[in-house]
Structures are given as C-alpha cells and as structure tokens.
Design goal:
alpha+beta; Fumarylacetoacetate hydrolase, domain 2; six-stranded mixed sheet; four-stranded antiparallel sheet; globular; hydrolase; Fumarylpyruvate hydrolase; Fumarylacetoacetase_C_sf; acetylpyruvate hydrolase activity
Length: 226
C-alpha cells in the first residue's frame, strides 16, 4: 500500500544534554490534581476520583506560544511532565516509576472561555485544551540524572510576578499512581507522556507576556506569548 500523502512528522522531545530524541505517542493530562486548584475551579477534591483527558502530540512546542484564535481568555497551567519509555497494562504502583524515562516542565495552555462554554452544554472540552501549540515544554531530563521528583517547588511567574506556587508533594495522585491508574484503562506504550496537573493560581495571559515556569530538580521554562 502507498500513502495518499506524506504522513505528518512525529512529535519529539529533545533530551537535555544529548543528541537523542523522545518520540511522542500520546499526551495524557490529569485534571484537578492539586487540592487548591480543584477548589478554585469549584470542585471538592475529597469527593472526586481521578480523571484524564488528552492533548495531541503535535500540541507540544519548544518556543514561543502563539495566542490562539477564537478565544479571549487563554490561561496558563504550569505542570510537571512525565515521559514513559516502557508500557504495559495494569502496572502495579510499586513498579510504575520503572517505566519513566524522564521529566520536563510544561504548560497546559487552556482556552478557558471555550472550555467553560463546552462544560455548560455538557459537551467534551478538547476545544479548550487540545488546540494547536497548546503545550509549551522544556527538553526532557533523564531519570538517570535527576531521579524521580516527588517534592519541591513548582511555580509560574508572568512578567516577573508570581502567579502560581505549590509543591510537588501536594499532588493528590502521585506519579506512580497516575501511571498505574491509566494503565487500567489503556495499554500504555513507550512514548506516552503524562501532564500531572497544576497548582492553584491559574489565570489569563496577553500577547507580549513572558511566562517563566519552574519545577525544582527539573528546570525552567521561558515562554513569550506572541
């Protein structure tokens, strides 16, 4: 068989300090994984099981963030990003971290107005989450270099002003638990990426803003809104 047209290129993370790249298969995102953020979004974190949605692999970018069309309320969400080099089904929590290749700092950019409209109508809200270039990230840092970050600062500044601030130990569902839970529903594969949720303080950005995200032990992400 012959392709009707050339297939789209595979999205890839650069690996910090290496010429290797990490090809991306899927991008999973967990919602409301910090209690304070769940509360600011109007939910009770004590009554909610974990839930996931997806971004498209080609949403991942490494550079400036273009303000998207059809929205006047685009918001930032700083996150720890997990990249898997091993897959499986029904992965035990005790061995789940063995599947992780490395970590990055990422932004789950959100068209909040479009997401809100979809929620009110009871519709899926990918239009607010999985849009072009909606996941600015840093290169991956291998586990062999930094281990598995489980505590430490996670924050975001906009134009030098702190907007989000938390600690990785405040995640409701830890990295190993997320991997294990996801593997019950889908067979995870090498190349899968998990965005692990955001602390409280999400808010809007404007063209010209400079976002500076940080995750302790992983690195810093600098993104200009264009």
């Amino acid at each position: 068989m012959t392709d009707l047209f050339p297939p789209a290129p595979v999205s890839r993370f650069p690996v910090d300090g290496s010429t290797a790249t990490f090809p991306v298969r899927r991008v999973y995102c967990i919602g409301r994984n910090y209690a304070a953020h769940a509360i600011e979004m109007g939910h009770d974190p004590d009554k909610e099981p974990p839930f996931f949605f997806q971004k498209s692999p080609d949403n991942i970018i490494f550079g400036d963030f273009p303000y998207p069309p059809e929205s006047s309320d685009v918001q930032f969400e700083i996150e720890l990003v997990v990249a898997l080099s091993k897959g499986g089904r029904n992965i035990p929590v005790e061995t789940a971290l063995d599947h992780v290749y490395g970590y990055a700092v990422g932004l789950d950019m959100t068209r909040r107005d479009l997401q809100g409209e979809a929620k009110k109508l009871g519709r899926p809200w990918e239009i607010g989450k999985s849009f072009d270039q909606s996941a600015p990230c840093t290169p991956l840092v291998p586990v062999s270099r930094i281990g598995h970050p489980s505590e430490g600062a996670i924050w975001l500044k906009v134009n030098g002003e702190i907007k989000q601030q938390g600690d990785l130990n405040q995640m409701i569902w830890k990295t190993a638990e997320m991997i294990s839970i996801l593997s019950r529903y889908d067979e995870l594969m090498p190349g899968d990426v998990i965005m692990t949720g955001t602390p409280a303080g999400v808010g809007p950005i404007l063209r010209g803003d400079v976002m500076h995200g940080h995750v302790s032990g992983v690195g810093d992400l600098m993104v200009t809104v264009v």
